């Protein structure tokens, strides 16, 4: 797998070091969550989707926190894991580990195995770097843990749901204009995101084929500042707060109150109560299934039913994939 090349194991890894939440979700999807011994911020990991899958649990309380000052070569020696699900290119690009340290850890502890920049196709280095889809990455992890039947079965669930959704979509000209944003209540401004941008970070929005409000912007995704007045001028039919579904807080409350904002109330989405908290970009396959369903309901409620509120579940009669079937796959009943 790029960028690490061919990686061989004497046996299935018993312990895995990882930082990113999306990798944790990949391992949970494959029924390998008990092998995880670290996370970037374990206490912040969202497990709400797992609560809807019978018999699927992921306890994060005893995991070692790797971000926030503790990440180092010495810690990787101390953890002594069988695999590091960390992208070494990303770590060298961000200066959190030198190439010499990575080489040393690979020789003396365990290999690295991850691909981070497929999230948004954002690698800016000089060496070739291949991008994978979310579901291609799942298959790579499944090969490590020798559970490819599970990855293939989950991929079929996703493909079936997406095909059923796309079969119901209206012509492109009749689809809503959707603004994917992050919001700063202190500055009362937005950062803009491309709804249909590349990478697994948009794997829950891109398949839905809506008209993105910012697809033609030249700035990098999520950069710059966009005023409330400019948002009124753009006048989207739907506004979605990127990432916020899994961690709502004070910003979310003010965002959801756009209909009471002296300027924001003039946005069509605010007038029609079409302002939503969106899924996270740091998603693996389980998150992706739930977030495709969530986003389909947010963008096309007349077709797929009303979306749930944060903390709520979709009624069984309105669910777009079988929770029990997914749980069975995760637990090895393929």
From TrEMBL:
SUPFAM superfamilies listed in its UniProt record: Helical backbone' metal receptor
Location, primary (coarse class): other
Keywords per UniProt: Signal, Transport
InterPro entries in alphabetical order: ABC_transptr_periplasmic_BD, Bact_iron-sidero_bind
Origin superkingdom: Archaea
Gene3D superfamilies documented for this protein: Nitrogenase molybdenum iron protein domain
Keyword Signal attached: yes
Subcellular location(s) of the protein: Cell envelope
Pfam families: Peripla_BP_2
Iron listed as a keyword: no
Domain Fe/B12 periplasmic-binding stretches: 15-307
Protein name as it appears in the record: Ferrichrome-binding protein
